[in-house]
């Protein structure tokens, strides 16, 4: 197992490098870079993409000069544009910029945001509590509800309980998360009915003055609605996966043998069937959590006024804030690859009979 883990760790290097190369190359062809964003703001032209789509005015199209590639730059001194290029590092060839960036990343130096004047690492740490809260609690609730429900559905397969719960799950899965979030706001956050939950933020303004218990209650009071909205569609896949896994195992010979020996139904289900049936579900927990953590819905965060990694990534992409884009891509890409290894270790932990080295051989 040690050799397998070592090979997977070594594979992280070329995989992560490939991810960065592909994304860095694609960004070079995307119009509206950070310098164009700054120029558009200084010229009062609003969104830089309007100029790109419109092709510029007749005067701009007839104007020559070294800075023609910057829409709206004709009214600014060339020296100012050159200073901006030098400050952002665009005076260097793309290949040189890429290797400089990767060299800094090896020392965990992810640079500073172009527009926020804050270190990328500090920026990610600042937004992380929201994403961790949404990702962790959404995943835990989904597992705590879906696994017992899936087991019950497998035991009662074909019964009325199985039928109406399946219908409920499918309906919940079909409702878009953002639509359910708006419904929760209208009903429980003072929209048109009850003002039970707060409308925005992760904590109250008087957080520092609250007692320990008060802080815990305040925290869960704020995240209740966004977590429910984010979790509602996760029940379907996990519940049905649990049910089908149990159904496959219940029909096997060793289950019939255990029942023939006189073991109780609970002992058969949780002493014999559970480990085999739950292998793919439990072992996949790290990947599911990271998936929710990374994919923290920008819509859910916006609706509930939560400033997390979802909004950070969206705003960085719109503003062409390259240090934030590539810094977070590197961090999350590395975390995702490591979680893949952790998921494999979870398989071995749940079922020691699995040997990845023999499978590779």
From TrEMBL:
Keywords for this protein: Cell inner membrane, Cell membrane, Membrane, Transmembrane, Transmembrane helix, Transport
Pfam families cross-referenced by the UniProt entry: BPD_transp_1
Domain ABC transmembrane type-1 as annotated: residue spans: 128-347
Source species taxonomy: Bacteria, Pseudomonadati, Pseudomonadota, Alphaproteobacteria, Rhodobacterales
Family: Belongs to the binding-protein-dependent transport system permease family.
Record protein name field: Inner membrane ABC transporter permease protein YejB
Domain of life: Bacteria
Transmembrane segments: 9-30, 130-149, 170-194, 219-242, 277-304, 324-350
Source organism of the structure: Ruegeria denitrificans
One GO term describing the cellular component: plasma membrane
GO BP term (any one): transmembrane transport
Localisation per UniProt entry: Cell inner membrane; Cell membrane
Membrane topology: Multi-pass membrane protein
């Amino acid at each position: 197992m040690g050799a397998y883990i070592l090979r997977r760790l070594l594979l992280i290097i070329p995989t992560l490098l490939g991810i960065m190369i592909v994304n860095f190359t694609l960004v070079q062809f995307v119009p509206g870079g950070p310098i164009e964003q700054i120029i558009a703001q200084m010229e009062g032209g609003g969104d830089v993409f309007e100029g790109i789509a419109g092709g510029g005015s007749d005067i701009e199209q007839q104007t020559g000069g070294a800075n023609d590639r910057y829409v709206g730059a004709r009214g600014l001194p060339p020296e100012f544009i050159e200073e901006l290029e030098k400050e952002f590092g665009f005076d260097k060839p793309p290949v040189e910029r890429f290797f400089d960036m990767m060299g800094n990343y090896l020392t965990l130096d992810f640079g500073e945001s172009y527009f926020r004047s804050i270190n990328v690492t500090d920026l990610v740490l600042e937004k992380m509590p929201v994403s961790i809260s949404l990702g962790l609690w959404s995943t835990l609730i989904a597992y705590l509800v879906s696994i017992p429900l899936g087991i019950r559905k497998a035991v009662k397969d074909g019964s009325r309980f199985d039928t109406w719960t399946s219908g409920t799950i499918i309906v919940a899965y079909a409702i878009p998360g953002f639509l359910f979030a708006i419904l929760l706001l209208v009903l429980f956050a003072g929209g048109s009915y009850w003002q039970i939950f707060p409308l925005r933020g992760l904590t109250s303004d008087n957080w520092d003055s609250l007692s320990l218990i008060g802080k815990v209650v305040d925290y869960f009071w704020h995240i209740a609605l966004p977590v429910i909205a984010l979790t509602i569609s996760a029940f379907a896949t996990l519940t049905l996966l649990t049910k089908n896994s149990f159904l496959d195992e219940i029909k096997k010979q060793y289950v019939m043998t255990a029942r023939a020996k006189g073991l109780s139904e609970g002992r058969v289900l949780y002493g014999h069937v559970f480990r085999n049936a739950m292998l793919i579900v439990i072992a996949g927990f790290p990947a599911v959590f990271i998936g929710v953590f990374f994919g923290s819905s920008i819509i859910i965060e916006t609706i509930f006024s939560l400033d997390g990694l979802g909004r950070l990534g969206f705003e960085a992409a719109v503003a062409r804030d390259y240090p934030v884009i590539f810094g977070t891509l590197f961090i999350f890409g590395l975390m995702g690859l490591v979680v893949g290894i952790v998921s494999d270790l979870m398989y071995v932990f749940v079922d020691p009979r699995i040997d990845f080295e023999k499978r590779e051989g």
